[in-house]
Amino acid sequence: MPKDDGIGASTKRREDTRFLTGNGKYTDDINLRGQTYVHFLRSDVAHGRIKGIDSSAAEAMDGVLRVFTAADFDSAGGIPCGWQVTDKHGQPMQEPKHPILAEGKVRHVGDPICAVVAETYAQARDAAEAIEVDIEELEPVVDMKAALKDGATKVHDDLSSNLCYDWGFVEENKDAVNEAFNNAAHVVSLELTNNRLVANPMEPRVAVGDYDPWGDSHTLYTTSQNPHVIRLLMGAFVLNIPEHKLRVVAPDVGGGFGSKIYHYAEEAFCTYAAKVLKRPVKWTSSRSEAFISDAHGRDHKTKIELALDADHNFTALRTETYANMGAYLSTFAPSIPTWLHGTLMAGNYKTPLIYVNVKAVFTNTVPVDAYRGAGRPEATFQIERLVDKAARELGVDPIELRRQNFIKPEEFPYQTPVAVVYDTGNYHATMDKMLELSDYAGFEARRAESAARGKLRGFGIAHYIEACGIAPSNLVGQLGARAGLYESASVRVNATGSISVYTGSHSHGQGHETTFAQVVAEMIGVDANSIEIHHGDTSNTPMGMGTYGSRSLAVGGSAIVKATNKIIDKAKKIAAHLLEAAPEDIELKDGKFSVAGTDKSVDWSGVTLAAYVPHNYPLEELEPGLEETAFYDPSNFTYPSGAYGCEVELDPETGKIDILRFIAADDFGNIVNPMIVEGQVHGGLAQGIGQALLENCVYDDQGQLLSGSYMDYTMPRADDMRGFTVDHSCVTPCTHNPLGVKGCGEAGAIGSPPAVVNAAIDALHRAGHTHITHIDMPLTPSRVWAAMNG
Amino acid sequence: MYNFDFVKPGSVADAVAALAGEEAQPLSGGQTLIPSMKARLNAPGSLVSLTGIPELVGVCREGDTLVIGAATTHAQVARDAAGDFPGLAALAGQIGDPAVRNKGTIGGSLANNDPSACYPAAALGTGATIVTDRREIAADDYFQGMFTTALEEGEIITSVRLPIPQASAYAKFVQPASRFALTAAFVARYASGVRVAITGASENGVFRWAEAEAALSSDFSANALDGLAHSAHEMIADLHGTAAYRAHLVGVMTRRAVAAAGS
């Protein structure tokens, strides 16, 4: 049995006490002396030319300090993009400038035109209404395929077209893939949409800029998943502030799901304006503003085809995807449909030849970037919908077709044809576990019972693979990343033995304060309560890359292990001196150092005290103190995988789908805190089921957001789900990180959408609606009914 | 939200007087008005609260009629009407969430006449009488289209008089995001016949489905509706459902309401 608070224990989340009692300290809780408030006047048209701005009346209003426009940012850079994709001809993507405030044109509803800073928020908002902006409306570009037609209106006048890039992967395989299709016994194809989503973290974005004229130094408090990345991007590329004069703090953050990775214009504005005005400047997004200014997710349109031989072995796969970039390139936008999507197109299968084509398109919509799963849900949805369709067309069992084509347990490590090498996995085991937990054998009886009540019951499966723990820096550098993707940790042991850990990862709901303490407690053998985890402040943590891509434990946790090992090595030397033994003879167990084979020992605090009160200490050989920093750069991605089963009941009169059972059998490698892992899976499933049945971000043909509030954007709610069966007993540890962990944060959102849709299609087919081969997400009652009655 | 004055009169007469002021608007539970003010879509000069007037609150039975004060919350109706008029109590208990039900009022809902609101279906489906500070209005005359009613400027609903049916039920298919009615049917059976009111579906707001009423008046069973379909003409079409889907749901929800009402 694990220790109460070591690795493997379901320790209660220590941070929850403050969150649940309303004592979290979020960015909006930060109020500085002399603080001012900014309101952004945002475009209410999707596309237009700014002919003039008259802010004179606004500037004369009570409490107004200043109205800023693009002209105030002549010396600032644009909001940079952190990833450069190279197209299939070897040319760099088209990369338009993303100004802090709109320059010359507005390009989406929500594009900020002016910023009004006033003594109070209400004054700023009142004044914004007094600004007259003369906009010549231009034809909006909304539909991706229309955007690429000759003569289409251009979102960016200085680019050659609305095409950001046309990417082919692996371009050299293209002819061989086409040849395999020509020789195929069966070809199955599917066209589908991966619906656009709004991240909707519980806490909207907030930024507070502060400037200290005496030190010429800036502080930005912001709702970020990665404060160091913001410091680097904003300091070096936008405002020209060196790192030592710029501190970025991301305190408690109430969820991000990707939308708080990116550097946003509002952050740069508040930082800059605080210096101009010599007063702190605060911005708090309203929920309505979040809908039109937070980066959206997904929004792919894909045609995917699978070639099979006469024995139903997969022989080739090819896809053509249109990926919406929105009006500007958000920080990691170009990488999502390419390197986080194309590299996953092998799925769990031994498809030998794969070609992925992605056309990234600019439109007059909010920028699109990573959202929980980021590229991998899009890949999984395509593959798992298509494999299900193939089984139906071939008249074979979808489970058996998958098993037949799975990479076998003995075939790892497995080199896919799309660049990545899966280190470990056992897909047969997760599939078996899921089916066992599903009571698959009892399905037919349950279906008959539903049928007796006039309802259609169906069972759907999906098996996913994801690449997490992003990423080896040298690899992503070759792929166009403009950053490294290592992680950092500093472990500071205090004189009396308590431990302060500073991590470059950022917790915005993941439970790092608990999990990371469990890791250190296990390694040293001390009480986890003597360990404090610090994150989110660039002034006290080493340069870190933050939290996304299920990387915190696999990469950030590995950095902590590395730093802790350095601590243990040094502590053993100190103990050896105190015990008059050789360091190699010192053993650390349960927080006590002893000399092997003797009863001589010194406890942890005896060593830590000696390090800081070095009266009896090998000062000639060893520095005093006990503090170590480590950077960990992974040698590969991690590859969590799992089998998901979904049982639905469909009401044929209304088209409404109820999820009756959902079973997730995941292989996350080793697990530090099973309870937190289960919670992460629950959250991911809620968002994946939300995508499959409920959530949809919709623009009309004028680029107006139709789903701009919770009156029309359907968030999943508790009563949309009846509970989940979550299992993570199938374990194939990661082979290349010290904890053997793979990551669990995104799995639920990646694996669940195809399982839900497959279940719905299964229910319809079992009831004789065999003409329905696909329904695009979300499977709303109206859409399902229309498919049944179309 | 823009600045406004706030008054909370203690009598209907004082409220009527306050509403005579320039740009004054009545405020009951505020479940629509306050969000629209926060979005700066509505800018009253003064708000006249109707929730401090004792005679506007309460549920009581007068013979075969249930009389509900206009400022009675949905939660109170769900609780206090349960014995005398369970179909109405069930409707009230399905509106919004607990926070909405403890603030929103029947008078506010009827005065707003949102085309997707629940209470208009109950008022029209029972042939209720809307009582105001100056007159009584039959439900059949009161609802005049989306967000439009027979109320005059400054006129305050004081109570609603609902004839208690022999049997009734409300069947609501929710719009998944807002959980207002995407389409819902209120069915009430009286000795004199059956009334069927549909909300959520029509561009003209709540309406009676005459063909269904005729069929059900001679045979109060779901089967009586077999072969009846409502036209999709002037049905609402939006993100959540086409006109044809809503027309289809009119039939489904009416059948379900009849089945739930029993015989």
UniProtKB/TrEMBL annotation, chain A:
| Name of the gene this protein is made from | cutL_2
- InterPro entries in the record, alphabetically? Ald_Oxase/Xan_DH_a/b, Ald_Oxase/Xan_DH_a/b_sf, Ald_Oxase/xanthine_DH-like, AldOxase/xan_DH_MoCoBD1, AldOxase/xan_DH_MoCoBD2, AldOxase/xan_DH_Mopterin-bd_sf
Record organism:
Roseinatronobacter ekhonensis
State one molecular function term (GO): carbon-monoxide oxygenase activity
- List the Pfam families: Ald_Xan_dh_C, MoCoBD_1, MoCoBD_2
Q: Which SUPFAM superfamilies match?
A: CO dehydrogenase molybdoprotein N-domain-like, Molybdenum cofactor-binding domain
Q: Which PANTHER family has this protein been placed in? A: ALDEHYDE OXIDASE 1-RELATED (PTHR11908:SF132), XANTHINE DEHYDROGENASE (PTHR11908)
Q: Which terms are listed as keywords in the entry?
A: Molybdenum, Oxidoreductase
**Segments forming domain Aldehyde oxidase/xanthine dehydrogenase a/b hammerhead:** 21-139
Output this protein's name.
Carbon monoxide dehydrogenase large chain
Q: Where on the tree of life does the source sit, at the highest rank?
A: Bacteria
Q: What Enzyme Commission number(s) apply to this enzyme?
A: 1.2.5.3
TrEMBL record, chain B:
Q: Does the keyword Oxidoreductase apply?
A: yes
* Domain FAD-binding PCMH-type: from-to ranges: 1-167
One Pfam family of this protein, by short name?
FAD_binding_5
Name the EC number(s).
1.2.5.3
Q: Name one GO molecular function term.
A: FAD binding
SMART domains annotated for this entry?
Answer: CO_deh_flav_C (SM01092)
UniProt cross-references to PROSITE patterns, sorted A to Z? FAD_PCMH
Alphabetized, the UniProt keywords read: FAD, Flavoprotein, Oxidoreductase
Q: What is this protein called?
A: Carbon monoxide dehydrogenase medium chain
From what organism does this protein derive?
Answer: Roseinatronobacter ekhonensis
What taxonomic classification does the UniProt entry list for its organism? Answer: Bacteria, Pseudomonadati, Pseudomonadota, Alphaproteobacteria, Rhodobacterales
